[in-house]
Amino acid sequence: MRFSGLKVLAQGLSGNKGWTAHWRDAQPKPEYDMVIIGGGGHGLSTAYYLAKNHGMTNIAVLEKGYLGGGNVGRNTTIVRANYFLQGNSEFYSHSMKLWEGLEQELNYNVMFSQRGLINLFHSDGQRDAFARRGNMMINQGDDAQLLSREGVRKMLPYLDFEQGRFPIYGGLYHPRGGTARHDAVAWGYARGASDRGVDLVQNCEVTGIDIEGGVVKGVQTTRGAIRAKKVGIIVAGRSGLVAGMAERRLPIESHVLQAFVTEGLKPVIDHVISFGMGHFYISQSDKGGLVFGGDLDFYSSYAQRGNLPMKEHVMEAGMTLMPMIGKAKVLRSWGGIMDMTPDGSPIIDKMEGIDGLYIDCGWNYGGFKAVPASGWCMAHLMATDQHHDYAAKFRMDRFRTGVSIMDEEGTGSQHNLH
Question: Which superfamily, per CATH, for 25-75+183-251+343-417?
Answer without folding.
Answer: FAD/NAD(P)-binding domain (3.50.50.60)
